[in-house]
Amino acid sequence: MESVEGVARTLLSFGRLSRGLPFGRAHGLSSRDPLLPLAPRSQENADPQRTAFLLRKQWTLYSVTPLYRFSNAHLRDYARLLSAFIAAEKQKGLAVEVGVELDIKVAVSSLPYLKGSDQDQAAILVQLSSRSPASPKNSEEKLIWSGWFCCVSGDDISKNVPEDFTCLPLFLVNGAECYTSIVGSWFQKTFDCSFRRLAISPLILSWMAAMWTGCKVDKTASAIELVFSVPCLPQPLDISYAIHPEDAKALWDTVQKTPGEIIQEEVDVFMDCLYSHFHRHFRIHLSATKLVKVSTAIASAHCDGIIKFLQSQYLTGVLMLLTELAISQIE
Amino acid sequence: MQRRQSFKTQKQPLQVHCKNQTDLSAWRKGGRIDPEKNVQSNQSPNNQKNDSKQGSLEQALSYFEKVQDRVSLKKNSVLQKHLTTVESIALQSGLPPEAFDVLLNVALSGKLADTVNTRLLKSLLPASVIPETSVVSSVSWLCVSKCSGNIQLLFLRWLIAVFDFIDHKEQLHALYGFFFSFLQDEKMCPYVCHLLYLLTRKETGEYIQLYETEYHFISYSGMQSYLQALLSLYKLYCPELVTITLPGKMKTYFKNSEGPWKAGINTVRRRNQENSPVFQPLFLGTAQPQSRKRKWNIQLIIPVSSTNTNNLEEDEKKYRVDLYSMSESFRVEQLQTFSQLLQNIHHLEFPSQMGSVLTNPLLLHYMNCIKDESIYLRLYYWMGQTLQEECTWCSVDNNQGEEEFKDFLETVYKTECFLQEGFSSCEEFLYKSLPLWDGFCCRSQILRLVSWIPLSSFSEIKSHLYDPLAQFFFTSSLYFKCSVLECLKELLQNWLNWHVIHLDSESDSQVHSSNTTHSELLNVVAELIHFVGWISTLALRLENNPTFLLYFILDFYETACDMYLRYNLPLLIMPPAGVFYPALLSMDSVSLNQLCYIMYRYRTNLVAAKENELSKKETVQFRFSNQTYQEYNQYITAMVGCLWTSSVFQKDIHPQGLRMDDELLKKTAVQEFKNSFNIVYHPAMMGYAVLFLQQAWPDDTTFNFSLIKGKKWNWYLEYLYAHGLKGLKVFIESSINRVSQASHRKAGNVQV
Lengths: 331, 752
What we know:
The structure holds two protein chains of two kinds.
Chain A: H1 4-17, H2 40-45, H3 48-51, E1 58-64, E2 67-68, H4 75-90, E3 104-111, E4 123-130, E5 142-150, H5 155-158, E6 165-166, E7 170-175, H6 177-191, E8 195-197, H7 202-213, E9 224-230, E10 237-243, H8 245-255, H9 264-282, E11 290-295, E12 299-302, E13 306-309, H10 315-330
Antiparallel strand pairs in A: 1-7, 1-8, 1-13, 2-6, 3-4, 4-5, 5-7, 9-10, 9-11, 11-12, 12-13
Chain B: H1 2-22, H2 24-28, H3 34-43, H4 47-66, H5 77-93, H6 97-108, H7 114-122, H8 132-144, H9 149-161, H10 170-174, H11 176-181, H12 189-199, H13 205-213, H14 215-221, H15 225-237, H16 262-275, H17 316-324, H18 338-344, H19 361-369, H20 373-390, H21 402-419, H22 424-433, H23 443-450, H24 461-475, H25 478-504, H26 511-515, H27 518-543, H28 547-560, H29 563-567, H30 577-584, H31 589-615, H32 626-643, H33 648-651, H34 662-667, H35 686-696, H36 711-722, H37 726-735, E1 736-737, E2 749-750
Antiparallel strand pairs in B: 1-2
Helix pairs in contact in B: 1-8, 4-5, 4-6, 6-7, 6-8, 7-9, 9-12, 12-15, 20-22, 21-23, 23-25, 24-27, 25-27, 25-28, 27-28, 27-30, 28-31, 31-37
Keywords (chain B): Centromere, Chromosome, Nucleus
InterPro entries (chain B): CENP-I
Main location (chain B): nucleus
């Protein structure tokens, strides 16, 4: 704990680096603003059953620049071409014929209900499933990789690009990296777009912690867990800080001045309260460490850009924040 | 068989030829080919070890080349040794192109036992490429059937596995018929089918007809999947010739031939990819992520130009035609020459990835004539993402690949020069990354990119560019300061060129009037010149007026003083006193001469502006402020008083000028203080005066400068002009009114 001062400086520099992050919009939000996960619209759109397959999975986040000449009318053709491309990549040097089914099946479909506004493009889901060559055709296919492109309330970018471009700035992946690589390469080649990993800064993570603490969940909620990593140590040292959700909610309610509106100062106060509580018990200044993970009943997020959605009613709300992050990375 | 035999003899000269071409002997003497060397040195840090390895490989190769009779492996330790050498080197770093000829020859000639041949074939892993000639000669060995059936099969499998590594394939395509004849061999058929599949092109149509004649043979042996594969390809190219119906779906057409070579080939692929990031095709699939950071999409690869296959707008039928024959449009892969570009410009398609234009000058030409927003937008997104992702000082854990990034920045800069236009993605990248820059990494590339920041009315250029640049400028070496000044001069010139071009096309384009007004642009240019004036003043003080620095500063003003006449920009800004006086009192004639030239150009521009103002009163939108004329007059008074009339201490009226009381001057104890800065006594000129005296009065050794007057004064001027002081010449001829030339008085008048 001696090097606390040096560490504090590192943390400060995070605040400086994250300039241009999308909090301009967050200041003085009205309760109608859909940035808050309580937006009624998202609830009515996202049918819990239809989005269930997106929950409780780890999704790795990417930002994607607008797709050039992408068309919703050709999803089946895309599936065919992509499947040929995958076969070619998987078996370099072996022959492949376009249109012939191989042991990896590709499905490209549209998720029209994953939207924030009318301006948003419908989300696109890509699924790879495998069939064992031995079993007959109607045997069960095993889902081995899935990825989806989406845009929830990304009006800032959707409005500003010409017709030829499709804005789906957020790409979420679950599955082996080798398939991500192949699918990503194909999209890059075919629609002239670029993928970049989307990391979540500690500043954003603390926002998520505050925002999600304030959300109501019906069932008995699990604990809120914050994971901090202590920098500049020879061995990695992580500190896990679990708080009872009702305690955290009570704290947040005292901090938040206007319901339905969050400002940076409130987030800072909330986190400072948690830090001082921790310091009282363990004599450790968490402000000198780096927040790497936030887990709540709504979702959990890791600074490496990995997210897990846990509540379908808050899905679009979380996606909206992530869309904003993705847009700020590609612009 | 007879035919095959003769083929072998026919091919003999070719074999000799290919030996010359690959120049094995040169390689043996130690004169290894450079790309190989690069691969080696990249490969392992301990070169010594490598050298000894190379030596033993050389020995092994020469052994295999000379080996005559059937040697038993068990009894011959020499053979064992060399075989092991070849195997171990092949596995570690791959074999050089020259080795393939020797090893294929020995393996297929049947001189040695099959166990040896098998081991040799299995170790044939390329370090970089496989020469086509060695493949061709081994096919001829295949035709004479000296080796066993198993070796023939293994060779075919090897050929399929390493197909992508053969450097050319033209001659191999010419052997299509020979491979085709092997179809009759039942054992070889599966592999030959695969090979033909790889070799088949649309032009190979004649064989498809041949294939039809063999159709009966096929139907006997049952429809094997590999035959189906080849047939389906033929059907794709020439649907009218292949009549049989093929079953719709099949799982795998060909047996996997890569088996024994797979691991080695993957290593070679990865290595090739690392060595030439720019010119390798996009190759993301099987490469392993090399580190935490080097994930799949984070390799700095400029994509290769390839046709956009995403052409699904038409109906299914037409789409098929488009995808395979491309009869309508001209494919970018075919575009090789400028004349092709001109002929096909009306139906040329842009590549599927716009980033590939960076390495394709022909497409850049094309881009120059197409006004399409989407082209620039695609390039903008790709470049913006690549720059940010690869920037070595922006992303925390990207500390490798500085060279790679440098090359990329260099390529971007060259493209900007080619298009004579800056990229906005580059501009944004600079604004984002300059505050984090160490001022050292990729310095010259960054400064070059700065010089291509587009001229726009962007109001925050000060905080985004000038502020960080000033920090580096003041805290860095003299050399860095000069580079910054140089790049800002380039920036000014690029802006002015842009302005001239857009002024010309103003009538027919909407670009100019759309977002920026003329006066805003003037303000941006003025801001740059004031910034340079400010940093120059401070730098001269910090560095104690070195001539080197002064040269770069005055170089900038050589462009700035001529903006009105040369670039039609109604803006003139005088250098600050902190630049003017150090140049005027410089110890170096080069600086003084430069200053004289600059003041002459200012005068010419100002006089022209005044005349235009007087004559065309209707268009006097942009008037030079009186302050500019005033400043010019103050400077010119000081200059003439200094160099000519020896009255500077009285007449200089600039607040930071040289005006001094006589009392004060007397205290300096300099006797002839009045003329101490005229063209004879000025410290920058005194050298010339001395040489002039020596020539004019060779016997006089007293260096009596006062002799230079009257007629001699004029001679002295001629002497100076003859020694290259052209700036001084134009200055004196324009700015000093020599009242009466005939009387040779050295008095002059200032005219403004």
